[in-house]
Amino acid sequence: MRLWRVVVLINLALGLGFVLGYLAWGRETARLADELERARRQQAVAGVERTWQARGVVRAVLPELNVVVLTHEDLVGYMGSMTMGFRVHDPKLYEGLDIGDRVRFTLTGVAPNVEITALAKEAP
Amino acid sequence: MTTFGVAARWLHLAASLGLVGLVAASLLVGHRDRPTVLAWEARMLRWARTLAGLVLATGLATLAHQSAVVTGRAGAALEVGEWVRLLGHSQFGTVWLVRHGLLLLLAALLLLREREDSAADRLALRVEAGLLAGVGLAAAAWAGHAAAVEGVGLPAALLDALHLLAAGAWLGALPPLAALLRTSARAEGADARPFAVRAVRGFSRLALTVMVVLVATGLANTWFQVGSVPALVGTSYGWLLLAKVALLLPILLLAQHNRRRLLPRLGSDGDTVGRPAMARLGRFVIAEAGLGLLIVLLTTGLSLSPPAVHDPVWWPFSERYAWDVAAALPGGPTRVLIGAQLTFLGVLALIVGLLLRSWRVILVGAGSLAVIAGLWIALPPMTVDAYPTTFRRSSVPYHVVSVASGAALFRTHCATCHGAGGRGDGPGGAGLPRPPADLTAPHTAQHTAGDMFWWLTHGIPAGGMPPFGAVLAEEERWDLINFIRTLAAGDQARQMTALVPPGRPWLVAPDLSIVVGPAPPRSLKDLRDRWMVLLVVFTLPESRTRLRQLAEAYNTLQALGTEVVAVPQGDGSDIIRRLGARPPILYPVITDGAADIATTYALLGRGLGPASLSPRGAPPLHVEFLVDRQGYIRARWLPGSPGPGWDTSQTLVEQIQLIDKETPAGPAPDEHVH
Q1: Which of A103, B399, B445, B542 is least buried, going by the fewest C-beta atoms within 10 A?
Q2: B214, B166 Cβ separation under 8 angstroms
Q3: What is the dihedral of CA A21, A23, A28, A34, to 10 degrees?
């Protein structure tokens, strides 16, 4: 065999390796994109009723609006931790509730149309 | 294990460089139908095969060593499963696979015993081998420190790859050329002599270019990995690098001798001049290659050491030179500038003198004198005492938790002599050889945090300060330094008013955690770039009216990009209830860790009145700080102090808008050093 033919063969092997590497890289990228898409879909809450449970501290009770304002933990897939008012399903839930109380609450609904369906004081 | 790793990497790098150099040498000589040249070519092919085998074997050893390092178990070096994991899941692995794929192809190419029938065959072999060996070598840059440089990883890796290739073309080509020179120098090698001379001349020209590339890319690498003079002289990485440069000098001298003295003599045919010169040159080239091998060993050490920029500096000298020190002296800057100009002129004269022949003695003499005089004028005002830890950076962030813990340590260990307020007026200091330092004095550029760390650790024997290295843990010593920094800054901050002054921001806000009930904590730093912060340290019931006022203004302030953070003095666990329901207070109110924040910011909240002269005095009941988006405190309001106050909300809004309009300076430094 002539030497230059060997060189051509080696270059072919090199090209093959390059193509295989490129394909492997493409597959990895596709897998990551897939994972991201799935994670996004989990976050998207369109039209599906969900519940969130989190802890918070009562900042204000506004009976005239039927709203309790809470500084709350992250609501996974909905919003990060912040201070925000939530509508309460049943006014009985905030009876006896005081500013500064630490609570554990359940939020139910189709985001952003959610309300507090359960609320319990935590031991101080 | 480390010795094994270093040895494997050293041989691996040396063999990789050797392969590139073999191709370079072979191209320089070209194909000649002389028996001696043909014999040399056959020998070089055998060398290439050996080197290829060595590269692959040591590459495998490197992989084994890396497995052991990554897993932390020596046994993992021999577990194929660990190798596979390393190869599949790390940058090291990817680069290793690519490189060894190429080197395997190179080995296959070299092992095929095909005949070289034509010029095309020969060129194809060399170009292909050069490509495989070159890329196989250069790709190593992506598994080294260069690729990890933040932000500019790609340019840094490309420069490093160029450095490797240049080193290969130069160091790697030395042994083949030496072999050719030595064969040609023999009596029966006369047929190859003209070609050896041509090859060596070609190499000499090439080596000049290569050296420029090596120095330039080496300087760039140094900039990325070392970055400063203290890091160069005060870390193991820096020392290895200096040793590398020091080894380069004899090589350059040897090369200069070869070029000037031996190369011209090669041309003469006579057995009396040409042949001995050639044999001599061959020996010198081998010596050069031997020194090169040592350089490669040092490079291996560099690649296994943490880069100097990330390593704590151990300053080896008892002095340092700093412009800031001279700038603080009257007449200092002028002296330094004059001296620097003189030194510069002297260096210029030296360079010109070395290049010119006719004026050499005068120019070199005058230049040396000018350099010495220039340094003699410029250095003294810049000189300041230094200690091994002078350039050490705090290992504890500038955070209220650290400052508060430093404050407690200060009361226990330091207040006796330095005084409860840090003014150097404690009762224990009276009998000392030197009065204790006033720690609230504005610190000049003369003392770094590292200096203080040294004094705390080892004491100041002449002044009577005892060492605390055995009493306080390293973190505690940094806590104390953070506290002293706040104490001194607080003294300078006493004249701060509610109006944002023009000029550079200077007062760094100690970091703090904003914890409101069970919500996950955010730090002040998390808000950087996005929010200004109005930090309100308050006491109930005195602050109630102001807090209500802020509650009503909260929407406006948020719309202006300002977050309000309220910090109660004393216990905060019940504070939200105590603030009351009407009007609803919705800005963050710290419920945990408020005491540390209040302690720290009380140091920064002292006013100008005589009662607040000492940090011992009662902390202000209510004080507000306006922190800009870069983390600097820009203005401060103490209710009752003269001048406009923030209880007129127009004043506060104006300050916020003032900060909003300016072009921001850089972010507040984490390890600010006075």
Answers
A1: B542
A2: yes
A3: 170
Q: What percent of chain B has pLDDT over 90?
A: 55
* B184-208 confidence digits (pLDDT tens): 888 888 888 888 888 998 999 898 8
Residue of B nearest to A9 (CA): B109
Q: What residues in B contact A61, CB-CB < 8 Å?
A: 581
Q: Give the closest residue to B138 by CA, choosing from B188, B183, B174, B103.
A: B103
Chosen from A27, A53, A59 to mutate, greatest number of chain B CBs within 10 A:
A59
pLDDT of residue B85: 92
Mean pLDDT is lowest, of B9-13, B83-87, B274-278, for B274-278
Please give the mean pLDDT across all residues of chain B: 89
pLDDT by residue, tens only, chain A of 124 residues: 677 788 888 888 889 988 998 998 899 899 999 999 888 776 655 667 889 999 999 999 999 999 999 999 999 888 889 999 999 999 999 888 999 999 999 999 887 889 999 999 987 6
Report the C-alpha gap between A85 and A65 in whole angstroms: 10
User: Peptide bond preceding B330: is omega within 30 degrees of 0, i.e. cis?
Assistant: no
Comparing CA positions, the residue from B649, B540, B659, B639 lying closest to residue B589 is B540
End-to-end Cα separation, chain B, in angstroms: 43
Q: Mapping DSSP to helix (H, G, I), strand (E, B) and coil, where does residue A1 land?
A: coil
CB contact under 8 A, B124 and A7: yes
Check CB contact under 8 Å for B120 and A4.
yes
pTM, whole model, 2 decimals? Answer: 0.81
CA distance B113 to chain A (A): 9
Q: Which phi-psi region, left, alpha or beta, contains residue B590 (left: φ > 0; alpha: ψ -120 to 50)? A: beta
- From residue B36, give the alpha-carbon distance in Å to each of A70, B40, B99, B197, B198: 91, 6, 34, 14, 15
Collect all residues with Cβ–Cβ distance below 8 Å to B641 and sequence separation of at least 6.
Answer: B497, B498, B607, B608
Give dist(CA B199, CA B181) in Å, integer: 10
Q: Which residues contact B609 (CB under 8 A, 6 or more apart)?
A: none
pLDDT of residue B269: 62
* In contact, B51 and B19? CB cutoff 8 Å: yes
How far apart, in whole angstroms, are the C-alpha atoms of residue B172 and residue B441?
60
DSSP letter at B260 equals I
Look up the ipTM and state it: 0.78
Judge: B517–A2 Cβ closer than 8 Å, yes or no: no
How many beta-carbon pairs under 8 angstroms link A with B? 93
DSSP 3-state of B464: coil
How many alpha carbons fall within 13 Å on the CB side of residue B381? 20
Query: What would the pLDDT profile of B299-345 be if each residue is shown by its tens digit?
Result: 999 999 999 888 889 999 999 988 888 888 888 899 999 999 999 99
Cβ–Cβ below 8 Å for B581 and A99: yes
Per-residue model confidence (pLDDT) at position B583: 84
Task: Verify whether the Cβ–Cβ distance A13 to B125 is below 8 Å.
Answer: no
Q: How far is B520 from chain A (nearest CA, A)?
A: 6
Q: pLDDT tier at B445 (50, 70, 90 boundaries)?
A: low
pLDDT digits (tens, 9 = 90+) for B475-485: 999 999 999 98
Task: Name the E strands within B438-558.
Answer: 507-508, 513-514, 522-523, 532-538
The CA dihedral of B667, B672, B673, B674, to the nearest 10 degrees, is 80
Best residue in A1, A3, A55 for a mutation probing chain B (most B CBs within 10 Å) = A3
What local confidence, expressed as pLDDT, does residue B324 receive? Answer: 80
Dist CA B139 CA B95 (whole Å): 7
